[in-house]
Design brief:
homodimer; alpha+beta
Chain lengths: 437, 437
């Protein structure tokens, strides 16, 4: 893609309400545009990042055997009355009357709807366990939406649901998701800490939040830094190993301020290992047994032919929120550097040229076509601007690798730079193999 | 995927309201489940087909240089008041009041919102032409939703928008989309006829519908069968060639009953070439100049520095509707055969076995793992059912290729069948190469 063709409205003036760095950066680089309070359009740059995050989330869900489906955004109020949450949910639920006066709503979450799908489909223990998920827009009518995509009204979320015959089996499903979440965040270039959490309006008695460290986070966190030393690769995808994994993680002290106890923190964590910082929630998992299946009569026949309420859990990852969360974690000292796995482009070519001398632009185009042929997703900055402005701009756009075609390039050797590192003069072949790694 | 693990609730009893074959088939094979009138959940089988259609639509949009973005489902009423459509649109628009009493709505289409995005982003003719698209859920509050996903309330649609400096330039964008649409439908295994159409509530004076032939279609169509003889490959992606293409297509008689004139039909089409049948609309494109840009003050500076209203068109493909439309076109004599490009699986293995003799199931599993290694997406029917039931079921599920492991298979030679064709006994190597073609 040529930058001059890319629909990327870069803004220099920031609106007053953009108070945190992800919100600022996303507006400045034209990743999003607000359409009304708390509701955004995703422009091509932001869209590409979000889609890459979505795909990683999807692959890691599929890899534990979860099946993708898609529930609608609009739900009937009936099922929420069955579960008892219709009155409880409060004003954050966007309640709607259709043209015939029927009460409908824009789903803020999908426990009721998936239970409704499941109860009409599955009748026997033989079909269990089952893991289903979808990635769909949700809506919460926040009274004070803020922080850009971090706390907005319309947001994109992966929510999965597990169905099991017993508490014991259900905990195995829970552990699979726990594992999948840690792998997902690793692939996104994030260090996420699982922390025991309150269950809130979802309900149940077992729940973990996954929190990434970021100084601008909304939650105060207290953790033992040993939690970062656990190597996920040592566990196998098998029930007892995954049980051990959850135990290893949850044995280490890590809590948000909700559950913080100073005495316990000091007793159980060495001073040198104590982390006190802020964090951002990027995932939340719940086990709630028959909280929905019981009132909604979602039963199956067990081995003995007895009807039992199916045991359920739910598992959320905020896909659109992660775009902001990654920025909060990775945007420092005025330089944004996207993790390779979710960068909007693999590399940007920055030629130095002007109206009167386009030699470097022509070289750049040659390199561009060469890289494209290798299926490298490359952005060519073909705008007639001075190099210092270009560099400032690309520090914000955040593509991790740059090929700079200016005074330092000689023949087919070019300046190659990884953001936040020194540049080197490399042949195109070396550059290609670095990019392909 | 093992069929016993696939979340595919196959229903034998059809609800009375399922009157057309796509609706019946989608319910019977568990592709969808109705959650309330006109609103469906997409279960894994239906979801896979829809995602494949979406991906083909996406690739063909990208190939003409359109850029993907994503607008929200919920829109403010303000922009619709600016364009003048808020009062005109009628009761099909789902109008909502948020918790603060503000008028919002669930977007039935996005001309206003994209105009709002564009006017704040682009200021100069230098950034044009521009093609932007998104694939997003829409809502129309149909008073009588029917025909399953063909006329439902919440539907998935690709809508693109073009932005140009003049009518003449805009028509070039229109022709690009025209070309892209024909290529898209070809890849979906459909023969689509472009037909001059009325513009309805979108407005403008140039519009084409893309209609596929299906006896159960909602529109009566009258066409010259020569329109199927035009070879799309002879045109190049270049303005004058695309202009010629549109002329070649539109010179041939093809209309819906709205525009039908018997005398003209008989005069311009040889009796032997006359097609009179029914069809289903799968795409609709519009050119409407400044209908939205003018009232919404979406202006750019032209070459002379004068502010002019940008010239716009819009281009829709019903992605969820296409799932039903393909079934209407391809489901005949109780056999559904998905086009290879959108089939939920590449091939199904059907072993003959029972509780007491699982030899063929074990063979089938070996073949299954072998094909999986070649990245062939394979379904294994591991259910203990008699073969006649299995065949009936797979006639509905519609995977185009079957490997039947029963009495006719010998050693590593298996019965291989393409739906609606005779089977042959082939080696696994031959089967693989047939599937990979």
């Amino acid at each position: 893609m040529y930058l001059s063709k890319l629909f990327i409205p870069i803004t220099k003036d920031l609106p007053a309400e953009a108070k945190i760095k992800s919100h600022q950066l996303m507006l400045r680089t034209g990743m999003i545009k607000q359409s009304s309070a708390g509701i955004y359009s995703w422009l091509p740059l932001g869209f590409k990042v979000m889609k890459k995050i979505e795909q990683i989330v999807r692959e890691e869900q599929n890899s534990i055997g979860a099946q993708e489906m898609l529930m609608p955004t609009i739900q009937s109020s009936e099922i929420w009355k069955e579960s008892g949450r219709y009155d409880d949910y409060g004003e954050e639920m966007l309640r709607i009357k259709d043209r015939q006066g029927r009460e409908i709503l824009y789903g803020p979450t999908n426990e009721e709807l998936i239970t409704d799908v499941f109860r009409s489909s599955v009748k026997s223990y033989k079909s269990l366990p089952q893991l289903l998920y979808h990635i769909q827009w949700k809506f919460r009518d926040e009274i004070r939406p803020r922080f850009g995509v971090m706390r907005c009204k319309e947001f994109y979320m992966k929510d999965a649901y597990s169905f099991d015959v017993s508490d014991e089996e259900a905990k195995k499903s829970y552990n699979k998701m726990f594992f999948s979440y840690l792998k997902t965040f690793n692939r996104l270039g994030l260090k996420a800490i699982p922390m025991a959490a309150d269950t809130g309006p979802i309900g149940g008695d077992l729940s973990h939040e996954f929190i990434i460290l970021a100084e601008t986070g909304e939650s105060q966190i207290y953790a033992d830094k040993k939690i970062f030393e656990i190597d996920l690769n040592k566990y196998e995808f098998e029930d007892s190993s995954l049980g051990q994994m959850r135990k290893d993680f949850t044995d280490i002290y890590a809590v948000t301020d909700e559950k913080y106890n100073e005495k316990k923190f000091n007793e159980s964590v060495d001073k040198k290992d104590q982390i006190k910082t802020k964090g951002i929630e990027v995932g939340h998992i719940f086990y709630f047994g028959d909280k929905y299946s019981k009132p909604m009569s979602c039963t199956i026949d067990d081995k003995s032919g007895k009807k039992i309420s199916v045991k359920m859990g739910s598992y959320g990852i905020g896909v659109s929120r992660l775009v902001g969360a990654i920025i909060e974690a990775k945007y420092n000292n005025n330089v944004m550097k996207w993790p390779k796995s979710v960068s909007p482009f693999d590399v940007v070519i920055i030629p130095s040229f002007n109206k009167n001398n386009k030699e470097n632009l022509i070289k750049a185009e040659k390199v561009y076509h060469d890289l494209k042929k290798q299926n490298i997703d490359v952005l060519l900055d073909d705008l007639d601007e001075n190099m210092s402005n270009k560099f400032k701009k690309h520090d914000l756009i955040g593509i991790p690798y740059q090929i700079i075609i200016g005074s330092k390039s000689e023949g087919d050797r070019f300046e190659f730079k990884e953001l936040n590192s020194e540049s080197a003069i490399l042949s195109l072949e070396d550059i290609k193999s670095k990019l392909k790694n």
